Amino acid sequence: MATGLVWRLKRYGRFCSTKTTGQPWKVFEANNNRPEIVLTIVECGYLMVFQGQESLDTIPLHSGSDFLKVHQKTDNLMFRFTVKGESRMIRMQFDGSSRAEAIRECSSAVEKLMEYLPVTTQDDAPPPPNQPPTEQGKVVGFEPEVVQGPLSIKRLTQHLLGENPVTLPRMYHHGSLAQGDLEPILRVCLLDPSFHAFVEKVEGELRKLLQE
Fold first, then answer.
1. 93: which of 11, 100, 138, 151 fits an S-S bond (Cβ 3.0–4.6 Å)?
2. In terms of C-beta density within 10 A (0-12 exposed, 13-18 middle, 19 or more buried), how is residue 118 classed?
3. β-bridge pairing 46-51 and 25-29
4. How far, in whole angstroms, is CA 37 from its chain's centroid?
5. Is 117 exposed, middle or buried (0-12, 13-18, 19+ CB in 10 A)?
6. How far apart are CA 24 and CA 198, in angstroms?
7. Each residue of 192-202: pLDDT tens digit?
8. Which pTM value belongs to this model?
């Protein structure tokens, strides 16, 4: 493996938009039966992903932001680019002993990536690694507005996207699932290769609602 900074990944997914049928997402995970997945950025300007001795991807970083778009969302990095007319998307989830550590690892990689190209971030993305991450949806020194009664669709959408977080009324805190039921359902969804694309579509539809 080339010499450079190295980060461990919990999950790595590759999406190819082609005309062939089949599952568009291919997901790699580090588990007991497979070697760990690592991301490295070498000084000559290449991002490389390995699982053990197997190379999963090599991305040139000197091509510029017109070729490569990078977005950070908490402990995930998303890459979008086109190769020979084929649209590709890559998603990496960073590993850590806790979610807070995974977010810091992701932010550390972003810091290095920004030496080569711009990286956009979600509103709830954490500060640089030398600062502790704040609560999701909040910024240091900012208290969300406390609202009463039902909210409009646009106001709820802004809250869900983190663009204008509020403290929701009590009526929005009751769920139909019993305590403990959500985690196993979420784990099954995350293992479904099509789930990541579904989440992207939901976010896209929410942003369309803001334009209405």
1. 11
2. exposed
3. unpaired
4. 16
5. middle
6. 12
7. 777 777 878 88
8. 0.54
